[in-house]
């Protein structure tokens, strides 16, 4: 049972926040292949989560704990999900406009 907690914790801190950010940064499915999205997810999570924890610990006087780590990972995921939802809502509905612009404002 302990390995299940370990797997869930690793996925929650080293994959899920980055996966959400890949959709926030690249909202169209065809912009990245699944392997590229997976590798980029791991890299983004590995960079964002420890950096956010460090900054909150250093400047926000929040102590390092399992709870604070989960809150940071959840907050990053929620921020990315909100960004993705806003970008998808503002995306043009015409497929010609989507293919003409590489960036969705």
Describe this structure in words.
This protein is mainly α. The chain has five helices and no strands. It has one domain. The C terminus is likely disordered. The protein is globular, with a radius of gyration of 16 Å.
Concise summary:
This protein is mainly alpha-helical and 105 residues long. It is built from 5 helices and no strands.
Break the fold down into its secondary structure elements and pairings:
Blueprint: H1 2-14, H2 16-25, H3 34-59, H4 66-90, H5 95-100
Helix pairs in contact: 2-3, 2-4, 3-4
- Summarize the helix and strand pattern as letters: HHHHH
**Parts with pLDDT < 50 across at least 5 consecutive residues:** 96-105
Q: Which structural class should the secondary elements be placed in?
A: mainly alpha
Summarize the amount of helix as a percent range. over 70%
Total beta strands = 0
What keyword list fits this structure?
105 residues, mainly alpha, 5 helices, 76% helix
């Amino acid at each position: 049972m302990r390995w299940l907690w370990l797997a869930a914790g690793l996925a929650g801190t080293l994959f899920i926040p980055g996966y959400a950010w890949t959709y926030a940064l690249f909202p169209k499915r065809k912009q990245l292949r699944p392997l590229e999205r997976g590798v980029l997810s791991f890299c983004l999570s590995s960079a964002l989560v420890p950096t956010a924890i460090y900054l909150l610990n250093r400047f926000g006087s929040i102590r390092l704990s399992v709870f604070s780590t989960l809150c940071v990972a959840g907050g990053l995921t929620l921020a990315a999900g909100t960004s993705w939802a806003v970008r998808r809502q503002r995306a043009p509905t015409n497929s010609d406009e989507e293919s003409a612009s590489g960036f969705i404002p």
